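Appendix B, example 12.
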Amino acid sequence: MSAISAAERTRLETKFPEVFKRSLFKQYGLMVGIALTLAYLVFCWFFFNVGPAFSNGKWDRAAIYVQDWYSWRAQPRLRFGEDGVVAAQWSSRGQYKDNATIDWLTPRDDGSMTAVFDGEGNRLDISTTQVDVYVDGTAYPVAITAEGAFAPDNAPAEIVQDRDKVWVYYGFAGQAEIRDNQVAVQRRFFGWANFLYDPRSPLWGNDLFSTIGLAFSNDEVVEGKANIQLIWEQWLGNQAWQHGDILVKLFQTLVMAFVGTLLATLFAFPLAFFAARNITQNRPMNWAMKRFFDFIRSVDMLIWALFFTRGFGPGPIPGIAAIFFTDTGALGKVYAEALENVDDKQREGMKSVGASPMAVNRFGVVPQVLPVFVSQSLYFWESNTRSATVIGAVGAGGIGLKLLETMGTNSDWDKVAYMVLLILFVVFLFDNLSNAIRSRLIGPAAH
């Protein structure tokens, strides 16, 4: 291909200067933006001490919390009696019935007890004077004295002497803390203990498949009550998992999101007409209404929730009010912008036949913007389903408050996982429902 002449080049440069004589910003803007972004990230790394925060993080504790999401721990305290008998004492959230046969915890005729962790090769043989710790089939005797518990000198890494007590670690299977008067055992299992029924229930011990079989069985577990009714009552009344209370709190969260969004929609709809400059020919009114929208939406929903919680006390009312105030401002702004971009031809057509201003807006404006309004409200409703969980944690009720209370126990992380999964399911459900309704109103999104 031959080179162009100087005259042709001059002609092209004159005709297309933006191609041949690009500004410095267009030439180096991207590179400068990338460099500034990297410099900002480096600044943040040192300013917020990201490196020390990662190095000082308690990752072992975080791993235990993660394990507690998908597994459960049986935590008996095996206390030493003065009569030489080792007795199991359970916490208030006991996973077994009283006097239940536990396959991994076996009392002996001589008053001692055996706790099996991972097969017979990893177990504890516990008496009031000595605990034989088996690691991979080898026994290591831990002496019990009045001064404490003391491991042998040849103990492996799984057995750790911590001043006057001894720790035994069996990995995921669990651990034990040996003291002079007790052995605190933590035995871990996959799954969630007693998720269907608590130990007080007549249906305790039934899994999902046996429960389905009972639902279709004619043999009544409790005389005079249908099995399906008994199953529903016992599942809702599970005192360990509190399904009934959690579902009520989840319903409160959904009501907060729906009612708050609905009220915000009803209030923002007429106010947006006063904010739109092409609808209301009054500049002070336009300015005042837009500033009102800016004010109530600039205060975060969480702050509004704290404010209303102080005024009304804990419960769903503060949550509804917080969503209402924040969304009224946000929806009013987007509604006003939609109104300012309507096609004026329909309005002019209505005016030309002598229609009143109310009729002009009713038939010339609303049909144009209504699908957009409904679509925006549906999106906010979907988003508020998540936000209602967060503001519930500050006292606005719902499942957010229940979630915060459960996390505060620092021991019910399986229940935390259960509520998080419920929230994720509800958000997924409402997201798809909202998308389906919006698609019917404004057509499917382009791919």
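The two ends are 41 Å apart (CA to CA). The first helix runs from residue 6 to 15.
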